[in-house]
């Protein structure tokens, strides 16, 4: 199974709440007929993040207004499905609520580090990571998967933790990935996440990031999930 991550910014002048409403309702309905998408989740950036410098993992206006996650049986099936009229209609609709020049898409394989159930009010932390200069993709992914991942799993209050590794075929071509990995962590609430950031376990996680990440390129967004469909 291939996992696609689509990072979106709202159309200039469109308020965050209106962006989310359109995406969750009108665009979601246009997307439902796309049978080549096996599972579709929208992760909406928390409204409380906008203009709030006190939020954990950053502050101020977020880098992205949300992330769409889509699963496909294969790259070939995704490519063929996207050429069909229903998919073309969904793609054309993006101009109505997103900034087209800011769209970013990443094809990945999912590495589940910690499995768990997240409640309806759960908070989804998404981090876009880049490797240190001169570090190979293979070395970055191995360190992240084998050392940093188990360390992160010790974070108090962490319900679920997933690493998304870009497909190897993306490197060296015209589709060079926008980052070297996406980390996803779920907590039951924003309060649980805030408490976790103050613990020694999470401080150790943050200290370890400099061993393999380019911290100047690290991007975070805090979101809530809306499952649109699963087939």
Summarize the structure.
With 231 residues, this protein is of the alpha+beta class.
Range of strand content: 25-35%
User: Average pLDDT, to the nearest integer?
Assistant: 95
Q: Supply the number of structural domains.
A: 1
Number of helices: 6
From the N-terminal CA to the C-terminal CA, the straight-line distance is 13 Å
CATH class reads: Alpha Beta
Biggest sheet, strands in spatial order? Answer: 1-3-2-8-5-7-6-4
CATH architecture annotation: 2-Layer Sandwich
Poorly predicted runs of 5 or more residues: none
Notes on the protein architecture:
With 231 residues, this protein is an alpha+beta fold. It has a single domain (2-230), classed as Alpha-Beta Plaits. Helix content is 29%, strand content 29%. It has an eight-stranded antiparallel beta barrel, surrounded by four helices. It is globular. The mean pLDDT is 95.
